[in-house]
Amino acid sequence: GFSLPYEGTANTTVPKSAMQINNSGTGAAIVGVHSSNGNYGEVGTPNSGLSGIAFSAGDNGVFARNEVGTALRAISTTGAAVAATCSDGIAVRAASDLSYGVDARSKDNNGIWAETQAAQKSGVYAQSTHVNGYGVYGKNTARNTFGYLGGRYGARGEQGDYEGFLGYSDGGVVGAYVPQNYYGYLGMATRAGVFRGDVRIEGDLVVTGTITGGAKGFAIDHPLAPSAKYLYHMAIESSEMLNSYSGNIVLDDNGEAVVTLPSYFEAVNTDIRYQLTCIGGWAQVYIAEEVRENRFRIAGGTPGLKISWEVTGRRQDAWARSNPLIPEVPKTGDESGKYIHPTLYGAPEEAGLEYEQHRRIMESIKEARRDRAAQSHTTQR
Question: Would you say the pTM of this structure is higher than 0.70?
Answer without folding.
Answer: no
